[in-house]
Each structure stands twice: as C-alpha cells, then as structure tokens.
C-alpha cells in the first residue's frame, strides 16, 4: 500500500510541476536549462518516474515564479 501511495504522490507532484511549467509558457527543455537539469529529468519528474531532489523543487519554484509552493 505504501508503494502505491508514494507513486500517487510522485505523480501528483509531477502533474503540478507540469501545470505550472505550461502556465509559464515554458517547454521542458527551457525549464531544465533554467534550473540546471536536463529535459529528460524534467520529463521524468513530471511523469512521476523520478523523485525530485529538494534543489530541483526549489529551482523550479523560482524559475516558475511559484516560490516555496512545491515544497509545502
């Protein structure tokens, strides 16, 4: 059950980051360049396949103008 819950949380975080990125009018490659990660990493996080490091979340928050939102 815990694995299913963890997977659901990862997917929810990824969906939110994708929604904020799209609202900012950015492509995955642009967000990746802005936060120091590759496009593939951004894609993997958005799809819930990779656990984002705190630095990824902090940098994405700043780049997307969502200061502190994804770490709450």
Automatic annotation (TrEMBL):
Region (Disordered): 53-72
Keyword DNA-binding: yes
Record-annotated HTH cro/C1-type domain positions: 17-71
Any Pfam family the entry gives: HTH_31
UniProt keywords, alphabetically: DNA-binding
A molecular function GO annotation: DNA binding
Keyword DNA-binding: yes
InterPro entries the record matches: Cro/C1-type_HTH (IPR001387), Lambda_DNA-bd_dom_sf (IPR010982)
Name of the protein in its database record: DNA-binding protein
Organism per entry: Streptomyces alboflavus
